[in-house]
Amino acid sequence: MPASPSPPARPSPTCPSHPPGAHLRRRLGAFHLWGIAVGLVISGEYFGWSYGWATAGTLGFLVTTVMVALMYSALIFSYTELTTSIPRAGGPFAYVLAAYGPVPAFVAGFASIVELVFAPPAIALAIGAYLHVQYPHVSARVAAGGAYVTFMALNIAGVSIAAMFELVVTIAAIVELLVFMAVVAPGFSWANFAHDGWAGADTFSLHAIPGILAAVPFAIWFFLAIEGVAMTAEEARDPQRTIPMAYVAGIVTLMLLAFGVMVMAGGVGDWKVLANLNDPLPRAMLSVVGPRSGYVHMLVWLGLFGLVASFHGIIMGYSRQIYAMAREGYLPALLGRLHPRFGTPWAAILAGGIVGLGAVFGDRYATIGGQPLTASIVTMSVFGALTMYVLAMGSVLRLRRMQPGLHRPWRVPGYPVVPGFALVAALLSFLGMAASNPAAFVLYALVMGAGVGAYLLARRHKRHAAMEKDAGMD
């Protein structure tokens, strides 16, 4: 819902202008941004979500997914107001900085980094697993490490190349999902989907509610990181127009694919067989067309496109968040450097990749709460996202009061109900996850505490240094 034209607001003191020579290049149109928005998330349509069936059943998980889809719809409509009003690479960091000041901004930005840096290791290991199936002599971890090196290099090579690649693999992944739904449609039965669909029962009861709530992280996996397209705001052409188009088209695309894939896969046989698998789509297709069908081989190979699209897009997202915070002095200055030839944040790309590679190769040696390291850090990624969502939605409400004259090319419809709903839903999801995943929550709290503590110490040191300098001048 476009706002009536108003003059752009002057930069806020809490939202400093960019230093000279640290500008990203505007090369992305609406179609590229849509590809990034969908590509960031689309691996979630291929794997991870089916674990929600194990806790909630098919019908229970359908309820969970509807609730999470409503939260993300409200979130994206609200987030678009922030992105178009403050179109900066820092995304949530920049929004919370304008609304609440430096310390909450660091919390939001660091939580976003946790979300975007800790999601790729699991995707990289899934890529490695796909390649290991096709080439058994190739180690899954070595292939995952190769994926990191390849796509970090591609991101450093330039945003135009990276965005075009993201668009191509995203379209290929969407086509594959549509083919999957068409191929399994003849074998679909609602009776199969609904059988024992309420956490093992055919009828709803209060006993199904804990499973519905416990399945929230798996439903979030359908949409996690779509907000990452905001990180490319400084590389978008006419961001006040192109970003709303990309966000709205992106969330609609993902909702249609999520519900279509989930319902069709659950209705072609015994869904319990798929509930704890990392490759539910090929297994569902096998039950319809048999193991010798070329469609199954196509799904296995092209499934790689969905994983690659998300992996590549999230690298693009985390690097822009790290770069923006370093540019503003919230992280070491080295991380704010741009490549002299390509104009890309090479140091930020490498920094996030080093953390991810450590998780990939450390997965076999560490377990947390009985789960592999990568499983725990994926849960931490969701904690980071929910933390950032709460602060971002609070920023929508606060900026409306603090800066009513801020130029808002897009205004969230249904204000204040829509951002208020997204805020409450994200907060409740966070609390529910903390209760059901205590070990991962403690690890997340330790990581966040260490990050915030380091920032506060550095901030204090800078203040003391500035005071000593002023005293010396006197």
From TrEMBL:
UniProt main location, coarse: membrane
MF terms in GO: transmembrane transporter activity
Protein topology in the membrane: Multi-pass membrane protein
Key words of the record: Cell membrane, Membrane, Transmembrane, Transmembrane helix
TM regions (residue ranges): 28-47, 59-80, 92-118, 138-157, 164-188, 208-233, 245-268, 295-318, 342-361, 373-392, 413-435, 441-458
NCBIfam families (UniProt xref): 2A0305
UniProt xrefs under PANTHER family: AMINO ACID TRANSPORTER-RELATED, MEMBRANE PROTEIN
Protein name: Putative amino acid permease YhdG
Gene that this sequence comes from: yhdG_1
